[in-house]
Design brief:
Rossmann fold; four-stranded parallel β-sheet; alpha/beta; about 130 residues; 4 strands; 6 helices
Length: about 130
């Protein structure tokens, strides 16, 4: 059985939806950001600080490759995971669901969230 893969922007609710769906259908829930942290023994923020986004994406790619070798999982990817062609190739082996959230809702969810390294580099999200 194929995996169900949740993709979308950071703050779209991939982890929340993934956990709930996992409970409903009884499949294992996998959060790729959490697996990267577990494998490295540190947070995504620290990985970004030390290795930059490129280093994080490389680690994320390895995790995605690993989890796609199993089936019957609900997989919540990092917001930027689909930006890499290799990740898209792996993810296309499952049933991919894009979680869309209006920009205003994303802003409301993320404006006070200091745990998102890519937002720390932003100057003024409201202007966009």
């Amino acid at each position: 059985m194929k995996n169900i893969i949740l993709v979308g922007l950071m703050g779209a609710g991939k982890t929340t939806v993934g956990r709930r769906l996992s409970q409903k259908i009884g499949w294992e829930f996998v959060d790729t950001d959490s697996l990267v942290e577990k494998n490295c023994g540190t947070s995504v923020n620290v990985i970004f600080e030390v290795e930059g986004e490129k280093g994080f994406r490389l680690r994320e790619k390895k995790v995605i490759e690993m989890v796609m070798n199993r089936g019957q999982q609900i997989i919540a990817t990092g917001g930027g995971a689909p930006t890499l062609e290799k990740n898209r190739k792996y993810l296309s082996k499952g049933f991919v669901i894009y979680l869309y959230v209006k920009p205003q809702s994303l802003w409301a969810r993320l404006q006070h969230d200091d745990s998102r390294p890519l937002l720390q580099a932003s100057t003024d999200v409201k202007k966009s």
